[in-house]
Amino acid sequence: MRCWSITRSLLLLTFALGCHREVEMLPLLERTIYTTDRFYDIQALSTDRAVMVGYAGKILETTNGGQTWERLPSGVDSALYTIRFTDAQHAWITGQDGVILHTGETDLSGGQSLATADPIFYDVMFTDLEQGWIVGEFGKIMHTTDGGETWHEQERSLMEGTSTIDVLDLPTLYGVHMMGRQHGAAAGLEGHIARTQDGQRWSFDKIEVEYPLVDPLFRVVELPDDSGWAVGAAGEVVRRAPGQQVWQRAHLGQDVLTWLRGVSFSDPQHGWMVGGFGLIYRTTDGGQTWLPSQG
């Protein structure tokens, strides 16, 4: 039976080729997400809309809860590490080589590129059009009250009550998230998380884990219910429960075999995580379960 089936298939193939000398190739469906993609950050704007950024200037937007993604123009080829909307029309994006994009266009096609001086700045967060923070190398924390015209240092407050005497010994900070002008958090090397309660002075939070965090945390987010999430290299995810002061490892119900660079919640129940190999996770139950989203 097997020999007959193969012979019959060959006869059918020969017949088809003889009848059709020219074969029309149908175009493949255009994809927007590949396993080779590297996504570094995402911002949820509603339960269905989110915008994420990544390698080679890639910006993708979904308006249907991740069922489909549309590519938006960035105007740059550099890796984009952070996206932050201050309102529906104004966004800040930081990227490789000190790139900072600021736009007032909802499609992000506009914007301005600025080269920053050493140390490297890794993240930016504006709570409104005037108040903003940037964090980066050597624990750098910069604050502006005039829409980025001038910046003032705040990182020296991290040294208070510690044995650190040189600001160059402070851990690099990769992500910052502010809940208004006074409350916020920043995450960085070796799982360090710093928080502020007045928008001016910062101190490191306590982290309790069964084995030490040796990989950096890239992004942190705080929610209105006083909980927090942070993600980083080697699939690290830590969480602070509502009303608690201590961070602990979170369990997603599955192994994460790549780095995570972005986490964002539109409300305490609906959130996203993005990372390497085109990884996108979504939760609709406050982080009790995380399910993959496909492009």
Notes on the protein architecture:
The chain is mainly β and 295 residues long. It has a single domain (33-292), classed as YVTN repeat-like/Quinoprotein amine dehydrogenase (Methylamine Dehydrogenase, Chain H). It is built from 1 helix and 24 strands. It has one helix at 2-19; strands spanning 39-44, 50-54, 59-62, 70-72, 80-85, 91-95, 100-103, 121-126, 132-136, 141-144, 152-153, 173-179, 183-188, 193-196, 202-204, 206-207, 217-222, 228-232, 237-240, 246-249, 260-265, 271-275, 280-283, 291-292. The strands form 6 sheets. Strands 16-20-19-18-17 form a 5-stranded mixed beta sheet, with no helix packed on it. 36% of the residues are buried. Residues 1-29 and 105-116 have low confidence and may be disordered.
Q: Taking Cα atoms only, what radius of gyration do you get, to the nearest Å?
A: 23 Å
Number of domains: 1
Q: Architecture, according to CATH?
A: 7 Propeller
In whole angstroms, the N-to-C terminal distance is 42 Å
**Approximate shape:** globular
How is the largest sheet built, in terms of strand order?
A: 16-20-19-18-17
| Percent in strands | 35-45%
Helices and strands, in order, run as HEEEEEEEEEEEEEEEEEEEEEEEE
Please write the CATH class name: Mainly Beta
Uncertain runs: 1-29, 105-116
* Number of extended strands: 24
The fold-level CATH name is Methylamine Dehydrogenase, Chain H
Share of residues in helices: under 10%
